[in-house]
């Protein structure tokens, strides 16, 4: 079970690393200070999850992944194109990334067991719902 938990948590970790990379890229290119501030909040939330998941993987005796993998490369390409088209398109791309992250957690939570499952259900999933909701609200306010 620990191996399955480590694999699943590392999958979540790749997604969170990708989110951090994508938010950093967007923050560097967004012109509106109010939007940038909200993106920074989401960035910090995802960065906290990266650290929490790394600690949990190590606690289970696993080795945390270092990078975001192929998904991170794809996410960066999408975000680069979106940012080039403006703040609204960048926010829409970030919200789609939040949708993807939420779906991953909801789909794979039951692949974890015991304490790892509690961690996903009680910490990671609620945090992902918060950043998802924040991007959804922001998307509705950006013109």
UniProtKB/TrEMBL annotation:
InterPro entries: DUF2383 (IPR019052), Ferritin-like (IPR012347), Ferritin-like_SF (IPR009078). Gene3D superfamilies: 1.20.1260.10. Residues 6-107 form the DUF2383 domain. Pfam families: DUF2383. It comes from the Bacteria. This is DUF2383 domain-containing protein. It comes from Archangium lansingense.
């Amino acid at each position: 079970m620990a191996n399955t938990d480590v694999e699943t948590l590392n999958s979540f970790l790749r997604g969170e690393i990708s989110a951090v990379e994508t938010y950093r890229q967007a923050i560097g290119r967004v012109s509106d200070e109010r939007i940038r501030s909200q993106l920074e909040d989401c960035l910090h939330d995802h960065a906290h999850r990266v650290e929490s998941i790394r600690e949990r993987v190590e606690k289970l005796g696993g080795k945390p992944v270092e990078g975001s993998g192929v998904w991170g490369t794809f996410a960066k390409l999408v975000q680069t194109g979106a940012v080039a088209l403006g703040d609204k398109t960048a926010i829409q791309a970030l919200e789609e990334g939040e949708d993807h992250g939420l779906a991953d957690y909801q789909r794979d939570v039951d692949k974890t067991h015991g304490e790892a499952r509690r961690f996903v259900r009680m910490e990671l999933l609620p945090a992902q719902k918060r950043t998802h909701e924040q991007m959804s609200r922001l998307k509705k306010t950006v013109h």
